[in-house]
Write a structure and sequence with these properties.
Layout: H1 5-22, H2 32-40, H3 46-62, H4 68-73, E1 77-84, H5 88-102, E2 105-111, E3 114-119, H6 123-131, E4 145-153, E5 156-164, H7 166-193, H8 203-249, H9 262-271
Antiparallel strand pairs: 1-5, 2-3, 3-4, 4-5
Helix pairs in contact: 2-3, 5-8, 6-9, 7-8
């Protein structure tokens, strides 16, 4: 009997489940060594297994199926992940440099491997930002929060960014509520003031026509706002991940140039920018 690749995966997964049941052990997963041992029995190189583990973790970090509400109001989160060569300590330091110096955000708390960042509204930071801009896009600063996780991986270090996009949803909801109120008002005005015609021979039809027209414009505006803003956030997340990778692998690269001279250079130096 010969099994296909898909059947091999299913058989191995089922065998592990039956073995754990027989031993009355909880299904708490396997170590990398366990997976490599299993894979070796079907001729898979351990190095390939390590890379597969990394790919699964990278994919899982950003995989998300949007709900119906998210399709209307925008995603709750926008995420991204990248594999960075280097140890966790060095990559975490590069991540904090980028988020603080280039994105001009401040860490509001750390839990385990995850740092949480928000817009740094302190006067000194705003002055430094104005006098000597960092390499960040500035888009992430306008979000509620960005969670950055730095985790060890067999192939290096995985950095995951998870941006809380609540401001997008709040703006979209505000546009939709305003649209609903405006559409009702437009319909009422049309029903009361528009004279009867062959096509709009009743107040109900006049109300419906005005309501539909106003609603269509409002919903279109909300959809465009969500789509445009979400695209900017995705681009900003990718840009930040590229910047973190560059900071971790090429720390010798120069910082953005400071003001060439005069009072701007003096103030920037004084502020540490």
């Amino acid at each position: 009997m010969r099994l296909s690749g898909a059947e091999v995966e299913q058989v191995i997964a089922r065998a592990i489940e039956l073995q754990q049941r027989a031993e009355r052990q909880p299904s708490d997963g396997l170590t990398l060594a366990d997976v490599q041992d299993i894979a070796a029995q079907i001729g898979v190189d351990p190095a390939v297994v390590r890379r597969a583990v990394t790919d699964v973790r990278l994919t899982g970090a950003v995989a998300h199926e949007p709900s119906a509400t998210e399709r209307l109001l925008g995603p709750r989160h926008v995420g991204g992940a990248v594999l960075v060569p280097g140890d966790v300590v060095g990559v975490r330091a590069a991540t904090r440099r980028w988020m603080g110096d280039d994105e001009h955000m401040r860490c509001t708390g750390t839990r385990g491997a995850t740092d949480r960042w928000q817009k740094d509204q302190r006067l000194m930071t705003e002055l430094r930002r104005g006098l000597s801009s960092g390499r960040g896009s500035g888009v992430l600063r306008d979000l509620r929060e960005v969670a950055v996780t730095v985790a060890e991986d067999p192939e290096g270090t995985i950095v995951t960014l998870d941006a809380d996009t609540a401001p997008i949803r709040t703006t979209a909801a505000g546009v939709l509520v305003t649209t609903a109120v405006s559409a009702v008002g437009a319909g009422a005005v049309a029903a009361g003031l528009t004279p009867d015609t062959a096509f709009l021979s009743s107040d109900v039809l006049q109300f419906a026509a005005a309501f539909a027209g106003t609603a269509a414009v409002g919903f279109g505006t909300a959809a465009l706002t969500v789509r445009t803003w979400t695209r900017k956030v995705r681009t900003a997340v990718d840009h930040a991940l590229d910047g973190i990778t560059m900071s971790a692998t090429q720390p010798e690269l120069p910082r953005p140039p400071k003001p060439s001279g005069g009072w701007r250079r003096t103030v920037a130096d004084w502020l540490g920018g």
